[in-house]
Amino acid sequence: MDRSIEIAVNGTRHAFAVDDRRSLLDVLRSDLGITSPKYGCGLAQCGACTVLVDGAPARSCVLRAAKADGAAVTTLEGLADAATGALHPVQQGFVEAAGAQCGYCLNGMIMSALALLSANPDPREDDVRSALRHNLCRCGTHAEIVASVMRAAELMREAAGNPARDDAAPAERAAVVSKAREGAPA
Amino acid sequence: MSGDYGRILVFREAGAAREVFLSFDTFGIAIGFNGHVDLGTGIETALSQIVAEELDLPLDRVRMVLGDTTRTPNQGPTIASETIQITAVPLRHAAAQIRRELALRGARRLNAPAARVTLSDGAVRWKETVATYESLIAGEEVALLLDEATPVKDPKDYTVVGRSAARVDLPAKVTGSHPYIHDVFVDGMVHGHVVRPPYHGRDSGAFIGHSLVGFDDAAVRAMPGFLAVVRRGDFLGVVAERADQAEAIAEALPVEWLLPPELPDMASLAETIRSQPATPRSCDATGDFAAGIAQCDVRLERTYVWPYHLHGSIGPSCAIADWNAGEPIVWSGSQNPHMLRADLANLMQLDEARIDIRRYQAAGCYGRNCADDVCGDALLLSHATGRPVRVQLTRAQEHLWEPKGAAQVMDVEGGLKDGAFHAYSLDSWYPSNRGPNLALLLTGRVSPEPRPSDMGDRTIIPPYRIAHKAITVHDMAPIVRAAWMRGVSALPNTFAHESFVDELAYEAGEDPVAFRLAHIDDPRTAHLIRESAEKGGWEARTAPRRRREGRMAYGQGFAFATYVHGAFPGTAAAASAWVCDVAVDMETGEVQLTRVFVGQDQGLVINPDGVRHQIHGNVNQTAGRVLKEELSFDEITVTAQSWATYPLQTFPETPAIETMLVERSGDPALGVGESAAVPAAAAIANAIFDATGIRMREAPFTPEKMRAALGIAGAAQPAAIAGPVAALSWRDRLAGRGLGSKANGATGSGKGTGARKMGLAALLGGSLTAGALALPIHRAIPPTPAPPAASFSAELLAKGREVFAAGNCADCHTVQGGSPNAGGLPVETPFGTIYTSNITPDPETGLGNWSFEAFERAMRKGVSRDGTNLYPAFPYTSFAKMSGDDMFALYAYLQTLEPVRRETPPAEMAVPFNLRPLNAAWNALYLGSGPLAPVAQKSPEWNRGRYLVEATGHCSACHSPRNALGAEMGGDAALSGAPVKGWYAPAIAGTAAASFGWDEERFYQYLRTGVAGDLAAAAGPMAEVVANLRELPDSDIQAMAVYLASLAPDGTGGSETAAGQTATPLPDATHRLFESACAVCHEPAVANLATAAKVPLSRSAAVRSSDDEALRTVIREGIEAPLSLATRDMPGFAAELTGAQIDALAAYVRTRYGAAAR
Ligand code: FES
Ligand code: FES
Fold first, then answer.
1. Is B1085 within 8 Å of A79 when comparing Cβ atoms?
2. Mean pLDDT on B442-471
3. Is B646 left (phi over 0), alpha (psi -120 to 50) or beta?
4. What separation in Å is there between the alpha carbon of A95 and the centre of ligand 1?
5. DSSP assignment of B641-671, as one string?
6. Distance from the alpha carbon of residue B1076 to the mean position of ligand 2, in angstroms
């Protein structure tokens, strides 16, 4: 059954009628041309479709668009600074630490990392691994992805003017930074 | 310098056409063309580095075009790590050729001696003068024939190659602007959805291409978006305007297939593989094995078994094809564009040159997935409809049909003579080929006979000096569809070589690394082994050390291999050595790979970071294959349809990885795409041996296998889905899809929320029935036309509408997809099947000819207008308590509904429940006595709440347990919770409700929004009830909350006691299923996940039920939450899990979460 809904995607409002059984993922990709969320499994198992709905991470393959009526949706396309084009620190972290091979899982990794870092701006590597435990990467890019999130955390703290972590083990931090730097442009 | 466009390029003749390898133009950009594709490995970056180096051009002025068939040279499939090693060679020469030409031209322009000009940064320089490359070709088209003798730079002079370069594709990928094949949109495109045959993943046998009996497209033509159903042989597809429409049509299309023949017994993998037809081929017969083995003083015979794996691309394959009047364009994620073009030419009987394959990146593929198949699908559908057609395979289709990474069996015999490795025989069976394009097979274009291949011989020759060898590969056809996967047969062959040599070393009383080195002649290999052992922290030993700390055992293992690819004897790619550490939990059998050190010799390193990333990828992916992954089969097909039953390695399971790249800049670059995967299985098995003294020879090394090998208690527990075969499951699945009963054989993408009404029917089944009994016992009330709708006041109708909502009438009196309130919903009861009645004002089949007297009698006494008894599933015992005003208001409101003519089917009751005396006796026993009288001592609010709960809302119909005759129990048992067939209605009164945490506030939240904090969320039939309650004013909801809270005595505890305590079952296949399919929403990894369950499983009503039925129901059907509520959806798993898997999962969830909840 069609139903009229209104959602804001990356700040742009869209009002339209939609079959109330269609997933938000399908509607974003097919109707709105927002292709950063990917179809991977359709069953909330892989994370490739993750978007933010009113700031909270959501697996858009199991969220019907009609259920998101009235919500503000954020996708990868909406993370960079609209005025300057500057990458969001999380995106920057993934570029610097090369957090992708094929990159099909990347959208889910970045979106989940955003969710993690907004709850825990100063994670340890184990926190990152735990937060990403339901995001699948078949290319085996796990090490680079963890390094990317650690680098992103650092960039976000710098941007917030709070680079130091009180309880950080200095050795671990140094390792993370150098790992991230290994992947930085030569 | 000049505005005239100019270009210089290098080409070779290919028939009538020219294949261009490299061009440079006056825009200052070099474009390289390579027939291989980037599989997500960063090959684009490495190739760009090669061009930039030879051409002395900044890296950011180089672009690569990979794989497009009309633009790139045909260089064969992107396999076997060949891109850098083989196909990049002409590219490098082409760059050197352009450089030489530009140097000559530059020297002339600058009046300099040709030998003395220097080139850098895109310009030719002589003393202070400079000529940019662009200026040297302005206005010209310079075409050079490829000369592979052109001298290239000395690696000593490299400034770009050999240094880490950032991936060129990443910035676009992190912003979502990189176009994957899945993101391509073509003007005018429509959408196809394929319906695959029931012989999932099989590609040989006479039934292939000949199993489709028929289909009924008339049944789906009227569905929205329908464009066509297309059939060719066993190829069947639907085309529609939108993708979701195509999928819905494909799922609804009635299709009849023949039952496929059974597979051989895939549970006994080794015997089955050995018993297939095969042709032995000797690869190495050095010495005389029979004589040699007879001379040995230590002899061992071993068998190693490798399971079937999925390539498991994270993105299911996708393609767009435009038939384009016989000049097809295909947008593809193929790994092998040129091979695909030949297949499509064959499929459509076209000249290859007329097909244009445009290659886009897809998800990583690691071998061969469905990327080529889906191009065939799209092209067939486009040809039939004349429109560009996009086909996106579902996760289930990709899982079931991708050509699998083949299982493999290695039988080994060998021995020691005087402490030396003296004799070795290895027989290897590898049932795989190149995975012919599915469309060719399904349409019958290619005959489905078994096609043997010869790829079982990769790295089949052991690297050791052994006097007597008998190395034999058994060339054979696939059993199920299979094709190369990372490491191909070299990985399992190395599992055998490197496990066996390890075992021999201990037999010889020597350190395994020292023993290997003693048998290696090649100094380069010896160097890699020695350096890796040293840098990797190898600890020499001559026996397993079995280091223990508490319940954990720790071990270290070594293995190495040179990956050999291409036709036998093949070409060596990079050689890799592993030193790895494991920790084995001696109570659960879990193996954690904690650290992997990889030493690798790949000759010249183009991009060190790129190589390290490849090593990391190989380690992580292969660790998962060795420890977790295994494909299961039923009697007919592959069974895994999602990650639920084929779990991948997760982040917390990944090891720390260290790398050592051997410096060899003077040697040619060797492929690195697969090498680091090859030693994985043996290295891990060897580490487990060091930790425990146990040899694992069958991958994967799951906790179940470890427990069995270690003799850990609980090892014998029957894991219902642990084995590769889930018995009889195909029968469930095929029957479920109605193979013989004209239903669709395709598997959906698992949306599975459509069975909601079934749940409702099941709910009603717990009570008795709403159908009319045929034998009159009461007087009939003559048909009397009801008063016209207009005669009722608006106020009265508004009241009636509320009563209608509070009574949840619409849900039971509407079938899914049917006219509202016209009845006909079947209710399966233990006593027979009854059907709900038509309550619209239709005069003949509904209530149009019912007087208020007749209506009220039915509502209060359960007697129909014609005098027949109603079964007490119709909750007239509750309605009897309603006030006269409400009753009349409801009557009035019903008369204003849209009249629908629909006969109610007669009940089908089993003896003795259709006997009149029994029903009459039942009424005498259980029917109460008229409207509720208010209780004077209680507040009006409480009395109102009581009325709504006890009368109109008939809560007891579900929440009170019933006695043997189907009557609600009263007293303390009232509203104390009841398993209703298929679901569970938990306690909402008494201490059970209070100790669970129910209070007035939470009752209110729940009834108003469907969610009470993290205490409870309405699901199944209750969600519909709450959705209907939205018609009621807040005051009524509040009144119900007040009344219900009064039934729960205070101070009996809070919700804290009801949640939090969980048991951890031993890890097995069901545990992995839960972790990969359920945990994401029920044990979310990030706070605030908007699609997670609102309530912890330990509080779920289904878990608190006294049996597993409610859990099974919700697992099967999922939850489609009413849009008006704050509750959430859950996907159903009926289509992808077998009955046995659902049973096991339900039992697992109750074990893990149920302990504290009841
Ligand atoms: S596509 Fe949504 S989680 Fe996999
Ligand atoms: S980078 Fe390919 S799936 Fe993660």
1. no
2. 96
3. beta
4. 23
5. -STTSSPPP-GGGPPEEEEEE---TTSPP--
6. 17
Q: For residues B778 and B758, what is the distance between their CA atoms, to the nearest angstrom?
A: 33
Q: pLDDT by residue (tens digit) across B262-299?
A: 999 999 999 999 999 999 999 999 999 999 999 999 99
- The SS3 call for residue B1142 is helix
Homologous superfamily (CATH) of A2-78 is: Beta-grasp domain (3.10.20.30)
DSSP state for residue B129 in the 8-state scheme: E
Question: Are A77 and B612 a contacting pair at CB < 8 A?
Answer: no
Q: How confident is residue B445, by pLDDT bands cut at 50, 70 and 90?
A: very high
CATH fold match for the domains B181-261+317-392 and B269-308+406-710: yes
CA B611/CA B630 separation, integer angstroms: 28
Chain A's closest residue to B1130, CA to CA, is: A62
**In contact, B393 and B314? CB cutoff 8 Å:** no
With a 6 Å cutoff on the Cβ, whether A150 touches ligand 2 is: no
Q: Map residue B1004 onto helix, strand or coil.
A: helix
How is residue B48 written in tokens?
């760009």
The CATH number given to A89-181 is 1.10.150.120
CB of residue A138 inside a 6 A radius of ligand 2:
yes
**What was the ipTM of the complex prediction?**
0.91
Residue B428 bridge partners (DSSP) = B410, B473
Ligand 2 pocket: which of A94, A134, A138, A144 to mutate (most atoms within 8 A of CB): A138
Q: Which atom of ligand 1 is nearest to the CA of A39?
A: 1
Q: Which CATH architecture has domain B7-167?
A: 2-Layer Sandwich (3.30)
Q: Which strand ranges, in their side-by-side order, compose the sheet holding B123-126?
A: B118-120, B123-126, B129-132
CA B370 distance to own-chain centroid: 14
- Fold of the domain built from segment(s) B269-308+406-710: Aldehyde Oxidoreductase; domain 4 (3.30.365)
Q: Which CATH superfamily includes the segment(s) B720-745+1061-1158? A: Cytochrome c-like domain (1.10.760.10)
Q: Is A167 exposed, middle or buried (0-12, 13-18, 19+ CB in 10 A)?
A: exposed
Ligand 1 atom nearest to CA at A61 = 2
Instruction: List the structure tokens of B649.
Output: 């390695």
Backbone angles phi, psi at B349, to 5 degrees: 55, 55
Distance CA A177, CA A152 (A): 11
The amino acid at residue B507 is: E
Q: What are the Cα distances from residue B501, in Å, to B11, B463, B864, B891?
A: 49, 11, 85, 86
Locate B430 and state its tokens.
Answer: 């590898």
Question: Residue B747: is its pLDDT beyond 80?
Answer: no
Q: Are B963 and B1017 in contact (CB under 8 A)?
A: no
Please state the length of chain B.
1158
Alpha-carbon span B996 to B1012, nearest angstrom = 12
How far is B708 from B714, CA to CA, in rounded Å? Answer: 9
- Over residues B353-375, the mean pLDDT reads 95
Within B261-370, residue ranges assigned H as helices are 269-275, 289-295, 337-348
Question: What are the boundaries of each domain within chain B?
Answer: 7-167, 181-261+317-392, 269-308+406-710, 720-745+1061-1158, 757-766+776-931, 939-1050
- CA of B314, closest atom in ligand 2: 3
Atom 3 of ligand 1 has which residue's CA nearest to it? A44
Question: Rg (Cα) of chain A, in Å, rounded?
Answer: 17
For an interface test with B, give the residue of A7, A38, A45, A120 to mutate (most B CBs within 10 A): A45
Parallel, antiparallel, or unpaired: how do β-strands B190-194 and B389-392 relate?
A: parallel
Nearest ligand to the C-alpha of residue B365? 2
**Interatomic CA distance for residues B1026 and B789, integer angstroms:** 28
**pTM assigned to the model:** 0.87
| pLDDT for B2 beyond 70 | no
Task: Give the sheet arrangement for strand A2-9, strand by strand.
Answer: A12-19, A2-9, A72-74, A50-53, A56-59
pLDDT > 70? residue B22: yes
Distance A105 CA to ligand 2 centre (A): 5
